[in-house]
Amino acid sequence: MSRVRLFLTRHGLDLLVVVTAVVTAVATVLRDDLENPSGPLFALGLVGITFAVLVLLARRRFPFAAPAATWLVCAALSFLDGQLIVNGAGILVAGMGAAVLLGSQRNASLSRLGLVIVLAGSLVVVRNGPSSSTDDLISVPVMFALGWLVGWALRERTERTEAAEERAARAEREREAAARVAVAEERARIARELHDVVAHAVSVIVLQVGAVRHRMPESAGADREALRNVEEAGRTALAEMRRLLNAMREDGDEAELGPHPGLADLDRLVRDVGAAGLEVTVRTDGEPRPLPAGLDLSAYRIVQEGLTNSLKHSGAGRAEVVVAYEPEALRLEVRDPGDRDGRAGTTVNGHGHGLVGIRERVKIFGGEMSAGPAPGGGFLVRARLPVGGGSP
What we know:
With 392 residues, this protein is of the alpha+beta class. Helix content is 65%, strand content 9%. The protein folds into three domains: 2-132, no CATH class; 182-248; 263-386, Heat Shock Protein 90 (2-Layer Sandwich), CATH 3.30.565. A five-stranded mixed beta sheet has the order 1-2-3-5-4, covered by helices on one side. The radius of gyration is 40 Å and the shape is elongated. The protein starts with a helix and ends in a 6-residue tail after the last strand.
């Protein structure tokens, strides 16, 4: 059934055109009225009326010329045999279809020209008909004009539909572009912070290597030279790191002189968020242990972004933070109960910088992250960060 439906969707109108042409040709052959011509005139009429229908198969390649040819050929054949056109049910269907196609032209000027062809062609056919009346000179053109009007209305509807689809596609592209910009900004921010952490670690290494080198005796010349090379390489790397950090900072950004925060600073974060109007409770599961500096900073930022999301979009005014120290991972949860009916905040589609930042930080450490409506109502942000060695 699906193949049949697909075939009819693609070729249904073409099939109708072919059937109409066959019916028209058969009806022409079976004519027995006195006005029926014979010999070459009959053959010419049969070929002409069949062509007038089959030419509609070319409507996709020639959207204006094909339906216009139907009406022009019919008008010309009516001079050859007036009864040929007016008595054919198939040619009536083809003429109505051609009128609709002319009305649906994208070019408004061609569409209006099509109306002129339909009205003029129908008047010629009716006038050349042997049994036509004065009423037919009015009713028949009006009937085909209504078909043209249907095509015009379909064109308007198609244009509105395509315009709506284009607006939707453009909005989707803008959302994707905004998401890419947000990801790039968050990655740059994360990179700046982690480069600060690395730069600090390199500074400590350089200082410790220098201290060890100065304490070594003069007799250990080769070892002192090796440590000197390590110290020089560290200083060079530190200088390049600082140069890179300066390049990554945006205009107006100032270097952070204070130490980066970690999970030990959650109490201060809770006080700051509470002063902004969000009551926060923190629960710690497991035995707290030292974490690598970069992971500790990212964990703090994840909780900070989760609370910021709750502060912006929660109507309940409270949130809960869970910090769980698992054997091989650190699990973080930030949950708010939503509004009074338990509904989550409205901005939960993941395009905001906060959730993007959480997702990027979790991705750096190869962890897992989810954000969405929580069981029982509200909104839940959950992240799990693998902990390698467990030492800073």
